[in-house]
Structures are given as C-alpha cells and as structure tokens.
C-alpha cells in the first residue's frame, strides 16, 4: 500500500491509484448484478435463437433455422427500412434545429436559469405521455392541430394522420423531433459554453467574420461532441417503441412497424419466440458495435472517460 | 451607444428563447387544460378554447383505482433507485479512482447493457421470469430495472467521481486513515450532489418506463404508464382522464428538471458532455 504520491505531482483529474484487491471488491456487487440481469438474458436469447420454440417450450436444436426464417421474412426487412427512414429523417432535422437553437441560447439571454429547465421537459417525459400528448394534438377530427391546421389547409382531408399509411411515419417523426430537438439544442449549448475564448479573440483580431468563426472554429471544435450526440440519438431513435406503440402500434399495415414493435408482435402476439430471439441477438450485436464506436469517440476525442 | 444596442439585443434574444420554450411546451399546456375540459366540449369543432372547468375527470380517475397505480409506481421507482445507489456507488468510485484489469472491456459491457433495446431483454426476461415465478412481482420488475438503471448510474456517477481532486483523499491517507474511512468520510460527502442528481435521473427513468412494466408486470402490478392505455375503453377513449393521469405522471419530471438543470445533459449523454 504505497500508492501515496507527493501532493500536486501529477494532474489530478482522471488520475488512478492502485489499491490491491479493494477495487475488485467494490465493483463485485455491480458486476454480479449486471451479469444476472444482462449477460444471462443475452445468453438465453442466443440459446433460444438456435432452438425450435413452441409456445414458450424449448424444443430441438435447429442451427441457423430461426435466422434463415427471419431473413426470409419480409416484415423483418420492412422494419429495418422503417427505422432507417425514421432515424435518417428525424435525427438530421433535430441536429439542424438544435444547432440553431443552441446558437440562440448562446446569446445574452436573461433569465436563462428559468428558461433552460423548461426546455428539458420533453426529453425527460415518459414516452408514453409524449405519445398521449400527440394523440390528442393530432386526433381524428377534433385534435388541435388536425382541425386548426391540417383540415383548414386541406392537407389531409377526412382522416387522422396516424391512420394514413403515407403520412403516419412522418407524424411519428414530428413527435420525435418535438421531443428531442430541445435536448439536442441544450447539449450543443453546453458544448458551446465549454469552448475556449482564446481562438475567437485571435480570430476577431485577424478580422474574421462571425460566419467564418462559426465554420472555421466552432464547427471543427464541436465535431467530436456532434458525433457523440449523433450516435446516442441514432441508437435511441432506432430502438423506438413506446410512442409508436401508443400512437399507431406499427400500423396502418406495417408502415410504422419498427424492429422493436415487430419484435414485440412476433414474441407476444404470434409467439414466434425463436425468430424474435434471433432478431434480438442480431440487434444486440449491432448495438454493441455502435456502443464501442461511441465509447472510443467519446474517450479519444472528447477525453470524456 | 454600444451598451444600449446590446441591451436591445438581449431583449430580442430573450424573447426568442421564450418563444421557443412556448412552442415546445404548448402541447403540455394543452394537456393540462384538458384535465378540466368537460366531455361536452371536448370534441367541439371549432376548438373550444374557453370552457367551464370541471373536476369530473379527477373523480373518475380516483374512483377507478389510479391512486393505487400511483402508489405502486412511486414505490417501485423509489426502491429500485435506492438499490441502484447502494450497489452502484462503490463501483462508480472504484472505476474512477483505481487501476482495474480489463477496465475497457467492463466499460463496454456496462455501456452495452445500458444501450440494449428493451425489447431484446424483455423476451428472455419474460420466459425466465415465467419459469421462476417472478412475473408480475415487485422483485421481478426491480431486477429488470437494474439493467438500464444500474449501468446508467455507475457510468454517470463515475464521471462525477473523476471530477473530485485526488489530493484531498491523499491528504486523508497521510493522516493515517484507511481507504474505507477515506471513502466514507471524505469521498461520500463530496459526492453527495452527484449521487443525488444521478439517482433522481434513475428515479425518472424507472417512473417513465413502459415496456418492462407492461410485459413483466401489468396485472397485479401496474405502473402509471401501463395504466394510461387502460383508459382506452370499449365505450371509447377517456381523453380527459388520460390528461389527468398524464399530468400526474409529469409531476416528478417537472420537479426534476428544475432541480437537476445541467446534470441532465451529462446524464443523457452518459457523461460525455459535462453540461
């Protein structure tokens, strides 16, 4: 136990000490708990994915049979396409609007400490309540937006947006944009606040315009942060379940059926447990790869971990 | 002159932010109004902006047992959060402060657990729970909530631990205190605000959670998010009542945002942005 170093010898943030066995004892309960609630279910899903499963009864080993069946199932490909469309439309909109919002917040605004928390409300709300809000805003004939906007401008005569196979997905995108843009703006704002002042002073001495300062200084310095938030939003948007469940349950038809919604229907409505386990395993592995990208970007470029 | 100009600019920017906040919050304000809107004008076209407020919806909500669901929600979120704090705090500190073999792999395991889509977990959980009799039990849901909340808590609290200067602990060690004494008497008090902020976020996540509560609970054990769809009845959707329950479900969130402020950015970006 001789890890004591002279005070102030090394920068203190993130410095690590060695202390024999103690750290392992401290992490043991967490590690055990996570093995039980995460690794065990994952391995069980892997096990199920290689077996025939009928009504919860595990039958014979069938190799990659479940995976092959899944690959031949057009609703599986449809769900990936739905989530891809959803994510690739919603997240860029949130980024552009969020960046604009962050630049506005970064001006001299009075009463920020009261106004900022208000903007956090949508991202902290239960997704089920978010769904409920928009069910009300866009309800059939009497919803506030349906009646006063959609109907008045003759945008979608005679039906609810969520009942239209062409537009339901865009309505869900609108809901996601409403819920997450304020958070993206606040996260970018936090990033802007953390930028060093020095380079900007130098730039204005050299006569750079504020637009040049934005493209040459702000954007490059913000890139790692944008990447990290982009990854988080991408992961979250891809696994969306709650708000679709309450708003459209994947319909009309399969037009808003995300992988999570399809997984739910396959497991608990059609009882195709083997196939949905195969799907869970693949999604899990894909997400794991995304997580390791997130981890490395955040660690190397943001020095966050 | 310059001063006057910047004052005018401040007013404009402040108004712009207020406008943004109003646009953002308008649906929430509308939901709040709907709690008091009588069914007779609920579906009126054109929209009835002004109406005689009624408490009928509250009455229905109370009479159909929602206070019980509220209690269950609160108890579940509280107990599961306390458990997470108890188990996770030492681990978060250890990860921040000590050399641990295979640290990167452990981190990825924790992060992967946090990010995994709930639907991937709920299928194996459902089958395992139905075998061992944990379906629709408090214990079962508390366990299931560990997946997203324990991983989240350890990950975020670790970033708070890293902000503590190590000198204080070293000075205490030089005084002859043991590592455990240092942790209990020095680190824990310094870490209190970080622990509370992260725990409040965990509480809100548990409070908001839907899929686990719906599939692994749902009969005896109902949380508020699971109870909301119950108001879609065979006689039609009880919109006013839904608004009441929705607003009740919002209360911890409203308290949380003012109380947490910037910790939310740190939390939702898993510590990648300090906020």
Describe the overall structure.
The complex is a heterodimer of chains A (305) and B (275). Chain A is mostly helical. Chain A has 2 domains: 38 residues; 227 residues, MetI-like fold (Orthogonal Bundle). In chain A, 68% of the residues lie in helices and 3% in strands. Chain A has 12 helices and 2 strands, in the order αββααααααααααα. A two-stranded antiparallel sheet of chain A has the order 1-2. In chain A, helix 11 runs antiparallel to helix 12. Chain A is globular. With 275 residues, chain B is mainly alpha-helical. Chain B has one domain: MetI-like fold (Orthogonal Bundle). Chain B has 13 helices and 2 strands. In chain B, strands 1-2 form a two-stranded antiparallel ribbon. In chain B, strand 1 and strand 2 form a beta hairpin. In chain B, helix 1 runs antiparallel to helix 12. The longest helix of chain B is centred in the N-terminal third of the chain and has 33 residues. Chain B is globular. Chain B starts with a helix and ends in a 7-residue tail after the last helix. The interface between A and B is large, with 112 and 111 residues.
Give the overall shape of chain A, derived from the CA principal axes.
Answer: globular
Strand percent estimate of chain B: under 5%
Briefly, what CATH class of the largest domain in chain A?
Mainly Alpha
Name the beta content range of chain A. Answer: under 5%
């Amino acid at each position: 136990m001789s890890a004591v170093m002279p005070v102030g010898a090394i920068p203190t943030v993130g410095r690590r000490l060695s202390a024999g066995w103690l750290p392992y004892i401290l992490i043991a309960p967490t590690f055990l708990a996570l093995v039980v609630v995460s690794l065990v279910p994952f391995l069980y899903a892997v096990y199920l994915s290689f077996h025939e499963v009928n009504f919860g009864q595990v039958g014979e080993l069938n190799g990659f049979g479940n995976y092959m069946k899944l690959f031949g199932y057009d609703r599986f490909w449809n769900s990936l396409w739905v989530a891809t469309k959803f994510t690739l439309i919603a997240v860029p909109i949130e980024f552009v609007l969020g960046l604009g919002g962050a630049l506005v917040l970064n001006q001299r605004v009075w009463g920020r400490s009261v106004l900022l928390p208000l903007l956090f409300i949508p991202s902290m709300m239960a997704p089920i309540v978010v769904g409920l809000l928009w069910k009300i805003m866009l309800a059939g004939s009497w919803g506030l937006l349906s009646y006063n906007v959609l109907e008045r401008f003759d945008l979608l005569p005679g039906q609810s947006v969520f009942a239209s196979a062409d537009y339901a997905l865009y309505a869900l995108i609108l809901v996601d944009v409403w819920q997450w843009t304020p958070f993206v703006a606040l996260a970018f704002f936090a990033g802007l606040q953390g930028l060093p002042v020095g380079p900007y002073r130098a730039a204005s001495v050299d006569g750079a315009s504020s637009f040049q300062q934005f493209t040459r200084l702000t954007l490059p310095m913000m890139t790692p942060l944008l990447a990290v938030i982009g990854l988080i939003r991408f992961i979250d948007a891809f696994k969306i379940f709650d708000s679709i469940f309450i708003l459209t349950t994947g319909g009309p038809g399969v037009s808003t059926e995300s992988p999570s919604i399809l997984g739910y229907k396959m497991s608990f409505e059609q009882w195709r447990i083997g196939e949905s386990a195969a799907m869970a395993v693949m999604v899990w592995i894909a997400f794991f790869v995304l997580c390791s990208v997130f981890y490395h970007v955040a660690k190397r470029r943001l020095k966050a971990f | 002159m310059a001063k006057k100009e910047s004052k005018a600019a401040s007013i404009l920017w402040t108004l712009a932010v207020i406008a943004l906040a109003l646009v953002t919050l308008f649906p929430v304000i509308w939901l709040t109004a709907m709690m008091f809107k009588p069914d007779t004008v609920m579906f009126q076209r054109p929209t009835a902006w002004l109406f005689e407020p009624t408490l009928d919806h509250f009455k229905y909500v109370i009479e159909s047992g929602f206070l019980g669901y509220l209690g269950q929600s609160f108890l579940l979120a509280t107990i599961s959060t306390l458990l997470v704090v108890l188990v996770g705090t030492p681990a978060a500190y250890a990860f921040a402060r000590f050399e641990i073999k295979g640290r990167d792999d452990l981190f990825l395991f924790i992060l992967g657990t946090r990010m995994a889509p709930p639907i991937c977990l709920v299928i194996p959980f459902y089958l395992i729970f139905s075998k061992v009799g944990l379906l629709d039990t408090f214990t079962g849901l508390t366990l299931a909530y560990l997946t997203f909340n324990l991983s989240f808590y350890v990950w975020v609290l670790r970033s708070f631990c890293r902000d503590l200067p190590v000198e204080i602990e070293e000075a205490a060690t030089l005084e002859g205190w043991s590592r455990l004494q240092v942790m209990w008497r020095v680190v824990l008090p310094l870490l209190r605000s970080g622990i509370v902020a992260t725990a409040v976020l965990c509480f809100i996540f548990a409070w908001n959670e839907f899929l686990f509560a719906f599939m692994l609970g749902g009969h005896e054990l109902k949380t508020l998010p699971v109870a909301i769809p119950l108001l879609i009845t065979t006689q039609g959707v009880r919109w006013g009542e839904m608004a009441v329950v929705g607003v009740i479900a919002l209360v911890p969130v409203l308290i949380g945002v003012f109380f947490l402020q910037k910790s939310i950015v740190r939390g939702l970006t898993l510590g990648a942005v300090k906020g």
